[in-house]
Structures are given as structure tokens and as C-alpha cells.
């Protein structure tokens, strides 16, 4: 169903929210990487190379993120470390490893919070929300998205505001608040036009709303326009998302030939990019498309693949792992609070002991003086 693609698109938007630090292309970044020493600038460059490659070559991008993580750990670059963890979270989520992605996102968030880095906090909260969306925990997803959006407004970062609006629109659409969703998408598109740069995201999302209204023609119009933008920008993950949406739309419109063309292209691109979180939707709609044509054997085989992919990505085991991770992090935070209280209590006890010692010394001093004075008076009386 399209709703899973909507959630997948939230995931694409979250990568768009990780704004580059350098205004340079992959070649320029590689040139910087080859010349700078092993310091914070090199970590920052590696993280930027991840972002430069993640939409068209995710495998290569992960290599840069891991190198950034290792170097940041070695030189104790906490900001670079937080960015590397966030980038790896993006990569694992795209591959469908949601529990691993959440683990990296939460680690990144705690680092950014310790640094009081608002931009990093906002971006990572947005990314955490995508995991909750994919897990259908819409309450938690809304909480994290709204917190993220509020911070982006404070930072006046228009690019990230547009991405955040898209995510909020997707979530409102998912809980069937379509009018509110359209407001977010329209505002996002208007803001992108104001910036003088066409963004595919709002168009795709508007197409999603038309799809929900069974207005397949208007949906296809918006998807095709968005697909042209993504291909022009070489955003292969964005193009993958739209290809799947087009395949689903033509399937629902009972036009099997164009539907299968788009779904097959999406499946090939999915494998090429190792974007496995998209596979359940591709397989499920491929099965439906074969059913519409009476190809029952092909439909059955595709549905078996769908069931296997869905269980691997959205299964109960993954949900349990996420819950366990959050409990562990909460427990660790409580332990830190307890250790702090213990330290404060120990300080109080030491201060009390010090005060008591001073009092004892004063009393001993007074007694010594009194004893000496008494001895002096007795000797004088004896004389």
C-alpha cells in the first residue's frame, strides 16, 4: 500500500535535513580530504562526503561515515562523532535495519544534547521520528517531529524547515488528517519556490494525497514532475521512492503494463542502492499487479518475498529491540542521576565531617587555653 511508501519518503526527507557544512561538491571534498591532516576538519569532510554520496551511492557513503566515526573517536571530536553516528543511522534505516538505526540516532542525540548543539538535536530528533513512523508509533513520531520543527523555526533554517514540513505533512496524512497535511505540503512548496529552487518532496507528497482520494491522474502528474527534478539532481533514493509510487498508482488504476515497468525499475534500483526498506512495498504491489493480470504463480511468489521482507524489517523482534534499547538508555540516564546524587551526598558528608572536625578542634583549643589558665592561677595561689 502507498502508506508504507509515505513512511519511506519521510526517511528520504530526513537525509535531506542533514545540511552540509561545506558548500562543495564530491570532487572538491575529496581534494580537501587528501590534503588535510587527521584533525576535526578531516572528520567534517568525511561526514560531508557521506552526505554527498548517500543518495546515489549509499555503500560508498557508509565507508566515509565509518572512517569519520573512527577518526572522531581517536581525536575525541565529539561534534564530528555525533554527526557520524547520525549518518550511520540514516544508512542503516535505508537498509531496513531499524533497530540499529535507532541505536545510532539515540547515541547521536545524547552527544548533541551534551554539546547543546540545537541544529544537531533538531536533525536527529527528526530522524528518530522516522523510525517511530515506520513502526506506526505515531504519538512518539509526532512528539519528536514537532520538537524538531520548533527548533528549525528558531534556527531560521529554510531548507530544514521545508524538510520538516514535509515530514509533518506525511505524518498527518498517515493519521488521516488530510487537510492539515495538504497545508504543510503547500507551505513547503511555496517556501521552496520563494527560495528559487524547485524541491521534489512537496510535489511527491501532494501526489500521495491525490492518490488517497483515488484521483490517479493528478497523482501521476505530480509524481512525474517530481521524478524529473530528482533525476536532474541525481537523487537516486528520491527517484526510487517516486518510481514505487508510480508503480502503485498504475496498479490501482488497473494499468498493469506501465505499473510493472515502474515496479521492475524500482526493484533494480533498490538492489543497486541496497535500499532494502523499500522492498516490502515493491513486492506487495508486484503481487497485486500480477493478480490483476491473472498471473497467480507470479503473484504468489512476489507475495512470499513481500512477507519475508516485511517480517525482517517491521517484525515484532525489531520492535522489542527498540523498546529494550530505549529502556537501557533510560536506565543509563537514571544511573547517571543516581551517581550524581551519590557524589553530591558524599560531598555533603565530607563537608559535615570537616565542620565537625573544626568544631572539635575549636573545643580542644578552648579547653587547652582554659587548662593552661587554670594551671597558671593555681600556681599563683600556691605562691
From TrEMBL:
Question: Where are the bilayer-spanning segments?
Answer: 357-377
Q: Which InterPro entries match?
A: TPR-like_helical_dom_sf (IPR011990), TPR_rpt (IPR019734)
Which PROSITE patterns would you find in this protein's record? TPR, TPR_REGION
**Sorted alphabetically, which Pfam families does this protein's record hold?**
TPR_12
Signal peptide residues are: 1-23
Map the TPR repeats onto residue numbers.
82-115, 162-195, 200-233
Which branch of life, at top level? Bacteria
Which UniProt key words apply to this protein?
Membrane, Signal, TPR repeat, Transmembrane, Transmembrane helix
Task: Name the chain's protein.
Answer: Tetratricopeptide repeat protein
Q: Which organism is it from?
A: Dawidia soli
Amino acid at each position: 500500500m502507498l502508506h508504507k511508501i509515505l513512511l519511506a519518503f519521510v526517511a528520504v526527507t530526513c537525509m535531506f535535513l542533514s545540511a552540509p557544512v561545506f558548500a562543495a561538491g564530491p570532487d572538491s571534498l575529496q581534494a580537501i580530504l587528501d590534503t588535510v591532516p587527521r584533525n576535526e576538519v578531516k572528520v567534517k569532510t568525511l561526514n560531508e562526503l557521506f552526505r554527498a554520496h548517500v543518495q546515489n551511492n549509499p555503500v560508498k557513503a557508509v565507508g566515509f561515515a565509518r572512517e569519520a566515526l573512527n577518526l572522531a573517536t581517536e581525536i575525541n571530536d565529539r561534534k564530528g562523532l555525533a554527526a557520524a553516528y547520525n549518518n550511520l543511522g540514516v544508512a542503516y534505516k535505508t537498509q531496513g535495519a531499524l533497530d540499529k538505526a535507532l541505536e545510532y540516532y539515540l547515541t547521536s542525540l545524547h552527544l548533541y544534547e551534551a554539546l547543546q548543539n540545537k541544529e544537531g538535536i533538531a536533525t536527529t530528533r527528526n530522524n528518530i521520528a522516522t523510525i517511530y513512523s515506520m513502526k506506526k508509533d505515531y504519538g512518539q513520531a509526532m512528539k519528536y517531529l514537532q520538537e524538531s520543527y520548533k527548533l528549525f523555526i528558531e534556527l531560521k533554517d529554510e531548507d530544514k524547515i521545508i524538510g520538516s514540513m514535509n515530514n509533518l505533512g506525511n505524518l498527518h496524512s498517515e493519521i488521516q488528517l488530510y487537510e492539515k497535511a495538504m497545508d504543510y505540503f503547500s507551505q513547503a512548496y511555496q517556501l521552496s519556490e520563494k527560495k528559487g529552487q524547485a524541491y521534489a518532496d512537496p510535489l511527491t507528497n501532494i501526489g500521495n494525497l491525490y492518490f488517497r482520494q483515488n484521483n490517479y491522474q493528478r497523482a501521476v502528474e505530480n509524481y512525474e514532475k517530481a521524478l524529473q527534478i530528482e533525476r536532474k539532481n541525481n537523487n537516486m533514493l528520491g527517484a526510487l521512492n517516486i518510481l514505487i509510487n508510480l508503480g502503485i498508482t498504475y496498479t490501482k488504476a488497473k494499468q498493469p503494463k506501465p505499473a510493472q515497468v515502474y515496479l521492475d525499475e524500482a526493484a533494480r534500483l533498490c538492489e543497486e542502492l541496497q535500499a532494502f526498506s523499500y522492498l516490502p512495498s515493491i513486492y506487495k504491489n508486484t503481487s497485486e499487479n500480477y493478480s490483476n493480470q491473472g498471473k497467480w504463480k507470479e503473484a504468489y511468489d512476489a507475495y512470499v518475498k513481500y512477507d519475508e521482507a516485511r517480517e525482517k524489517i517491521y517484525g515484532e523482534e525489531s520492535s522489542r529491540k527498540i523498546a529494550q534499547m530505549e529502556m537501557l538508555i533510560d536506565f543509563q540516564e537514571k544511573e547517571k542521576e543516581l551517581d550524581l546524587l551519590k557524589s553530591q551526598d558524599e560531598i555533603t558528608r565530607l563537608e559535615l565531617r570537616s565542620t565537625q572536625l573544626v568544631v572539635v578542634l575549636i573545643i580542644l583549643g578552648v579547653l587547652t587555653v582554659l587548662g593552661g589558665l587554670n594551671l597558671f592561677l593555681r600556681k599563683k595561689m600556691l605562691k
